[in-house]
Amino acid sequence: MDVKNMREYMGWLYYQYLLITGIYVLEPWEKSIFNTVLFTMVAMVVYTSYVFVPIHIWCNFETRLKKKDKYYLICHLPKCTYRLLELSLIF
Fold it and tell me: How many separate domains does the chain show?
């Protein structure tokens, strides 16, 4: 793809974004507020997923490996939860 086709494609994607969200009818200042709120929410979801999802997967995997008796789950699950808190403070 050359630069002109890429620019046209990006313009087409932006036009689709305007049509799907319905913000093409808004004033420019309303569009900027809407886009700012949307970008902030998406950034928060991406950051939270990046920080907490691997920790929860790791904790779940560790718990399932040692899931031979129910006593382990009752007594050691808070330890895993404390690790989640410690690891979340690192990031």
Answer: 1
The boundaries of the domain holding residue 45 are 27-90
pTM exceeding 0.85: no
Q: What is the pLDDT of residues 55-75, one digit of tens each?
A: 777 777 776 666 655 545 444
Burial class for 58, CB neighbours closer than 10 Å (0-12, 13-18, 19+) = middle
Give domain status of residue 1, yes or no. no
Give the single-character DSSP code of 26: S
Q: What is the pLDDT of residues 35-49, one digit of tens each?
A: 999 999 999 999 988
CB 59 within 8 A of CB 83: yes
Instruction: Please indicate, yes or no, if residue 84 is contained in any of the structural domains.
Output: yes
